[in-house]
Amino acid sequence: MSRFWAFFCCFFAAAQNVAFIHPLPASLVNLTSSSSDDYFSAITPIEFGYLIWSSFPIKVYIEPIAPNVVEGTGEDRRWRTWERLARKAFNNWSVYLPLTIVDGIELSDIEILREYPPTSSTRAKAGQTRYCLYQSKDRILRHKMIIKIPPNLAEYSLQSTIEHELGHALGIWGHSDKPSDRMYDSQSPQAASISPRDINTLKKIYQQPTKLGWPVSYSSQDSTKINSLTGSWREKPKSNSSCFQ
Predict the structure, then answer these.
(1) Which of 39, 98, 144, 147 is the most interior residue, by most CB within 10 Å?
(2) CB atoms < 10 A from the CB of 107, how many?
(3) How many Cα neighbours within 13 Å face the side chain of 160?
(4) Helix runs in 17-144, H state only
(5) CA dist., res. 38 & res. 222, Å (int)
(6) 186-216 pLDDT, tens per residue?
């Protein structure tokens, strides 16, 4: 995208608060797949467009071992297994989108926390991903993702669960209809890794318009709606902020 066109898009987006398409990151531009199949039709945009990132690398915080855990204990080993598999899931997705790990939770775009998600009326959740909307100081509409993964998951399902939830956080806000995909709705022994259909879907999502990552116009029709969702946030919301699932 030329500088002139980028400036024009930003100016027009600020004036009209309409959705625009961000340039694809190089990792997706250069992506080739053995299949053209995808499940894009199952992806649900939010009110302001698709939940995609436009600033790279995406900053990911992985909760470290708690300071009160005694080294060499069973709890220590469980923590280390959880962190190791979270980093493995991170590495697998970083092939397709630029990601980096940050030490400070306040610096992150995505938080991966070792916490129990809220239970539903029917069953306990293996993992949960929520999104928070906020306006940065430069009046850009942005989002943050918060992932909660239970501390007691069996090792065989831990990585796949984190990988699945991280897929949601990266923009796949929906589920596949095939058990061979990582983003299938439930645990599946057929999903050994992130599949070509997962990646084809991710790439198609990043080719869609969104209002995320563009300036907010306070004279637009969306301004009241955006303010009602983001409140007065002018920085990244904290984990306990009001977010959406």
Answers:
(1) 147
(2) 11
(3) 21
(4) 26-29, 74-93
(5) 32
(6) 887 777 899 999 999 999 999 999 999 998 7
